[in-house]
Each structure stands twice: as C-alpha cells, then as structure tokens.
Design a protein that fits this description.
single chain; about 550 residues; alpha/beta
C-alpha cells in the first residue's frame, strides 16, 4: 500500500473554485466513508481549510487511486470533474509525505509560517480516527506531521515570517497602521463562534477594541465565547452575545466586522451592508462604477433594467455593477455570452456610469472568446482602482470559505472589505524570512526519516515470521533429540536447548539487522520479498504478524 494525496489549494485554483468546492462537515464525513469503501483505498483523511481541500488515502494502485479520489472529490464538492481536474494536484509516496510536512510547517500556507494549520491537521486526524478511516499509515503520518510542524516553529524563526490569517487580515484592514493603534477604542462584531472566529475575537481583544459582540446560530456558543473574552487576563474588553437575528442592528453600531461561519450562503449581502452604513452615517451609500477609475465620480447604486429579452437574469445581478459588464456575466458559458453580446449590441438596455451598450457589447464579445477557451468566466470581485476613496466607515474581514460577505461590497464607497481572495493577492508580495530555508531542510530530513521508518516497518513482519519459523524448527529438533536420548536429565536437556537457540540466533542476527538497514534505504522494499522467497516463508504468517502489529498499535494509541 502507498500514500496518495489529491487536492486543490490557493496555489493551484482561483478562490472562486475553492469557494464552490468547499466541503461541509457532513460532506467530509460522507467523502471519508466513500473513499475507504472504494476499491483502491483502505485508509482516508480529509484536510479542509479556508484555502485548501486535500484527500489523503492509502491505496494499492496509483492510477486507479488518482481516478477514484478525483471523482470522489468532484462528487462531494459539487464541482464537475472536468471543471475541477485542471486545478487538482497529485502527490505520491515520499512526495505526499513532503507535501503534508510542508503544510504542517506553514510553508504552503497563504501566509507563510502561520501556525493555525497545526490545529486543522489535528482536527483532520481526530475526525478520521473517530470515523475509523485512519489506519496505521495515516495515524503515523499525521502525528509525525504535527511533530514536524511543532519542531519547525520551536527551532526556527518561521513565526517571524508568518502569522495567523486573522492577524494578516487585520493588518490588511488597518492599511499600514499598527493594528493596536488602529483597533483601539473600536466596536467589533464577530459573526461565528468556531476556531477562526474565536481567534479573531481574542486577537481583537488583545489589540484594544472597546467592545466585542459575538453572533452565532447557536446562542450558547456565542455566550461561551463572550464569557471567555471577558474572563481573559490579557485584555479589558467588554463582550456580549447576540442571536443572528440581531446582526442587522449590530451592523449599524460596529466599526469592525469579522465573519467566519459554516454557512453555505451569504451571511451579509451588499444591500444589508449598505443599509447598515446608511443607518450609521445618515447618508445614502454609493457604489463605484467603472468610470471612477479616472473621474472618481460616484453614483447611487443603480437598479438593473427589467428587459424581457435579455438572456441574463437581471434580478440576480448585484447592485453596483453594470448589467452589461464583466461581473454581470460571471459564470456564463460561451454560448450564452454570445447571445448576450448580440442582445446588448442592439442597444436594448441602459448601463450604469454612462457606458454605452456598444462598449459593453465589445467587452462581452471578448469575454465570449475567452469563455470559448477556458469554459466559463470567473467572477470579478475586486473594484476598479479609483483616484480617491472616502475613509471607510466600516471595516469587514471575511475569513469564510465559501464566503460570508457579498463580494459586491468591494464596490461600496466608505466600506473596506478584505476577504480570502484579497488576502491571497496581498500575501503573494509578502517577504519570506531567512528561516524558511532552515524549515525546508527540517522538512527534507524528516521526510527521509519517515520514509526510512516506514520501509523498515514494512520488513518487520517478515523478520518476525522468519524468527518464528526458526524457533519452531529449534523446538521440533530439540523435541526429536529428547526422544532419541531419553537418558538425558533436565539439566542436560536445558544446555542442549540453549546451545541450539544460541546458534540459530547468531546465524540470524547479522542478516536480520542488515536487511532492516537495507530495507530502510530508498528502493529497499524488495528485501522483504527476497526473505520470503529464500526462506519459503508462509505469506499468511507474515500477514497475520502485520495484523497483530496494527491491532496493538490501535489499542495502545492515546485517545
């Protein structure tokens, strides 16, 4: 059996694909059960975070394993296999081990060096253990990954290169101002009470916000988090819990909003944010149009025209976007785009910001050509650059995947939104610490050690079976000798028995030690087969030893 990982992350896929492929807790459970039920796999574990979805499995066939794991990921994520495949990566055996160890050290994170991934790996292992989908290989692998990650953070300065996604997100909101100076005295609304939301609340409390309001669908969890914040010794924040129904009212009071829930739909729409800020400022909120890149002109949020023949669902178009523009046609296939371009070229509608139907028709025609090549047009989330933006009245940080906050909020003047996509863009330019090279060396050393241990463990059942066979031969020969020489007393029988055992042990010692050393080296897996062939060992005996070791490993594993 061999380790295989199939997955996608912020390095291989756009955020729009990651968002659609996000797995709920129930979907992860079903994926694990279906994976171990599939023919190529015997063990499985899912590592799902806000910027990666990876399926680990112990498989007996590489190509069949890749095909099966890719298909299962597509089925349970709801993204078609043909669409998902270009974004998937595959790692096998030592490369798969290297990948997980790099992830555990924060080398593959959106923010290099962040330590929160260790908790997520721990949760992934705990879920697989609870569902009994993790056997010896994945238990050993994930536990070693946790140790490697802790070693990297303890022995190097990787923490200086990285930080949590929460801290990085708050720095992006503060735009050059130190987070404590920016946060001091502000009122914060935290939506969600999971691990990420709890980290955000604690970080804001330590940064000096005056008040934190926690909203969660399960009110008891919100209350518990609020109590923890108040009881903490390292902050003097006021905290209280509210129900989700109170979020619209709390939005009008909050300076900072952090949202990270498990919701499958939007928690905050652009309209709800606009209404909240209007209620806070008393001024109608405006949206930026494409023309503001040069003129900084702002118009009130336009409403799409209700044209019957338009192939675009105008009612679903987000306020603040041209119904003819790139954002409005996001996700359309090539044929629909061409139909829409023909309709737009007829001048059948009006657009926001003074753009002409002819200009939008040219844009849509170009998009149709792109869609014909890549399949679909991804959503455009970021606003056009503008000469001036008013100082934000509200700061929003969306750490959820799929998103909690409508991407159209990016275009609302007076609001600053930082989400997973904008964090990915910002982190691409983040400096790497010199300690990263040291962490890479640690990962390489640990991968070599893990591989050697796995290869050595692979031959252990064969060595045990060989020694068992030798002991049976000694017992049979000593018994035969006792039958032929009945006059020997017990002391003499004991001396003969010990002498034969010493001879066998000395004969087997050097070969078994050496074969373990050879088996631990790359390409050493064949030595177990050689031993079985040379000594005519029963394959079932070797298998029974392996099963006994696995059973002991499971029994002795700490809870």
């Amino acid at each position: 059996m061999s380790l295989l990982v199939v997955g996608l992350s912020h390095r291989s896929a756009p955020v729009s694909v990651l968002e659609r492929a996000a797995l709920s807790a129930d979907a992860q459970t079903k994926l694990l059960h279906d994976t171990v039920a599939a023919e190529p796999a015997t063990e499985a574990s899912v590592l799902a975070t806000c910027n990666r979805i990876e399926l680990y499995a112990d498989v007996d066939k590489f190509h069949a394993g890749v095909a099966e794991l890719s298909t299962l990921l597509a089925q349970h994520s709801g993204v078609g296999l043909e669409e998902l495949t270009p974004y998937l990566y595959v790692h096998y055996e030592d490369r798969a081990v290297h990948h997980l160890f790099s992830v555990a050290c924060g080398l593959d994170s959106m923010v290099v060096g962040e330590g929160q991934i260790l908790g997520q790996i721990k949760d992934s292992l705990a879920r697989a253990q609870e569902l009994h989908t993790a056997g010896k290989l994945l238990n050993d692998l994930f536990q070693q990954a946790l140790r490697v990650g802790k070693r990297a953070h303890f022995e190097t300065g990787i923490d200086r290169a990285g930080q949590s996604l929460v801290t990085f997100g708050l720095e992006q909101l503060a735009t050059g101002i130190a987070v404590p100076a920016w946060a001091r005295g502000k009122k914060a609304l935290v939506i969600g009470a999971g691990s990420m939301s709890s980290l955000a609340a604690a970080t804001l409390a330590r940064a000096g916000v005056a008040e934190i309001v926690v909203a969660n669908r399960t009110f008891d969890r919100a209350e518990r988090l609020a109590e923890i914040l108040v009881a903490a010794d390292d902050n003097a924040v006021t905290a209280r819990a509210v129900r989700m129904a109170a979020v619209p009212d709390e939005l009008t009071r909050a300076d900072v909003v952090v949202s990270c829930t498990g919701a499958t739909g939007l928690v905050l729409t652009a309209e709800s944010v606009a209404q909240a800020v209007e209620g806070r400022t008393g001024q109608p909120l405006v949206a930026e149009t494409a023309d503001t890149a040069d003129t900084a002109v702002r118009t009130e949020i336009p409403q799409p025209a209700a044209d019957e023949n338009c192939p675009l669902d105008l009612a679903a178009a987000q306020p603040g976007f041209s119904v003819m523009g790139e954002a409005a046609v996001a996700g359309m296939d090539a044929a629909t785009l061409e139909q829409h371009a023909t309709w737009a070229a007829g001048g059948n509608t009006r657009t926001a910001g003074g753009r002409t139907p002819e200009a939008d028709a040219e844009l849509i025609t170009a998009l149709a050509a792109t869609a014909a090549t890549v399949g679909r047009i991804p959503e455009r989330r970021r606003p056009e650059p503008v000469a001036e933006r008013p100082a934000p009245a509200v700061f929003l940080l969306d750490l959820a995947m799929p998103r909690d906050i409508d991407a159209a909020v990016h275009r609302l003047a007076g609001v600053r939104l930082v989400d997973i996509e904008s964090l990915a863009e910002a982190s691409a330019d983040a400096p790497m610490a010199a300690d990263v090279d040291q962490v890479r060396r640690i990962v390489s050393d640990e991968v070599a050690a893990f591989g050697a241990a796995m290869r050595a463990a692979h031959i252990t059942p064969t060595v045990v079976a060989l020694r068992t066979m030798a002991a049976d031969v000694v017992a049979a020969e000593v018994g035969r000798l006792h039958g032929r020489l009945p006059e020997l007393d017990e002391r003499q029988r004991g001396e003969i028995r010990q002498a034969v055992h010493r001879v066998v042990d000395k004969l087997l010692h050097a070969p078994t030690v050496r074969v373990k050393q050879l088996a631990a080296e790359p390409g050493g897996a064949g030595y177990a087969d050689a031993l079985r062939t040379l000594f005519d060992l029963d394959a079932e005996t070797v298998t029974s030893v392996s099963r006994a070791e696995d059973s002991t490993e499971t029994k002795d594993r700490p809870a």
